[in-house]
């Protein structure tokens, strides 16, 4: 387990999905299935986070190109607007307790976010959750910086931008591969597997 103690951090770095914002991808599948007139199971069986998904998250291909790739891989003839509707339906509110934890932590040290995400999601959550996201000094988003977790280059970019020693940045993420990637670049990482993990880590830091 990562060792955290009061005074051991200069900055906190948060993933967004399933750490700050709750995500329910089944809502996208249900929306697309409704528009396509098929069963959600048919889409689930064919949906993969492929190279087009990765390029879309790095801002390297357009939304239209990504939706065209989905149209082909999923075998459904729905419009870009219908894809977008489902794509943005995945945001299911704030994670429990986070609205109380972030402002408290922000009084003590700078907060940053680092998320693998894409332009339509950024447009959506920036408006929908503006109040909550206002606690972050800066958002490092894969579609803006052209780099994504868990790549070493992505973590190095964010650490340099924050300007604190990597080991004094505490990083919260729900995916094991991102936790491993962060630790490999010297960050102190907390694997968030339940909403209590963030609160417990802040408590250990004396926040």
Structural account:
This protein is an alpha/beta fold. 48% of the residues lie in helices and 14% in strands. It has helices at residues 26-36, 40-44, 51-57, 63-74, 80-87, 98-106, 119-128, 130-133, 142-145, 152-162, 176-184, 196-204, and strands spanning 11-14, 21-23, 91-94, 111-115, 138-141, 169-173, 188-191. The strands form two sheets. It has a five-stranded parallel sheet with strand order 5-4-1-6-7, with helices on both faces. Strands 2-3 form a two-stranded antiparallel ribbon. Helix 1 packs antiparallel against helix 5. The mean pLDDT is 97.
Question: How do the helices and strands line up, and which of them pair or pack?
Answer:
Blueprint: E1 11-14, E2 21-23, H1 26-36, H2 40-44, H3 51-57, H4 63-74, H5 80-87, E3 91-94, H6 98-106, E4 111-115, H7 119-128, H8 130-133, E5 138-141, H9 142-145, H10 152-162, E6 169-173, H11 176-184, E7 188-191, H12 196-204
Parallel strand pairs: 1-4, 1-6, 4-5, 6-7
Antiparallel strand pairs: 2-3
Helix pairs in contact: 1-5
What is this entry, summarized?
This protein is α/β, with parallel strands linked by helices. The chain contains twelve helices and seven strands. The longest helix has 12 residues, at 63-74.
End-to-end C-alpha gap: 19 Å
Helical proportion, percent range: 40-55%
Strand content: 5-15%
With strands numbered from the N-terminus, the spatial order across the biggest sheet is 5-4-1-6-7
Rg from alpha-carbon coordinates:
18 Å
Main sheet attributes: strand count, strand direction, barrel closure: 5 strands, parallel
Total count of helical runs of at least 4 residues? 12
Whole-number average pLDDT?
97
Determine the structural class based on helices, strands and strand pairing. alpha/beta
Shape: elongated
């Amino acid at each position: 387990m990562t060792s955290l103690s009061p005074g051991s951090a200069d900055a906190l770095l948060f993933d967004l999905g399933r750490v700050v914002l709750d995500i329910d991808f089944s809502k996208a599948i249900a929306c697309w299935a409704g528009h396509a007139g098929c069963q959600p199971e048919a889409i689930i069986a064919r949906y993969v986070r492929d190279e087009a998904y990765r390029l879309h998250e790095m801002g390297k291909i357009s939304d239209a190109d990504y939706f065209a790739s989905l149209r082909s891989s999923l075998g459904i003839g729905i419009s870009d607007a219908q894809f977008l509707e489902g794509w943005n339906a995945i945001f299911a509110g704030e994670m429990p307790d986070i609205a109380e934890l972030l402002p408290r932590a922000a009084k003590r040290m700078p907060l940053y976010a680092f998320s693998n995400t894409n332009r339509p999601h950024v447009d959506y959550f920036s408006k929908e959750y503006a109040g909550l996201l206002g606690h972050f000094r800066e958002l490092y988003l894969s579609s803006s910086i052209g780099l994504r977790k868990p790549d070493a280059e992505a973590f190095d970019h964010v650490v340099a931008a924050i300007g604190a020693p990597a080991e004094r940045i505490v990083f919260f993420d729900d995916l094991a591969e991102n936790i491993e990637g962060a630790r490999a670049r010297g960050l102190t990482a907390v694997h968030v597997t339940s909403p209590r993990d963030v609160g417990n880590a802040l408590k250990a830091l004396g926040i």
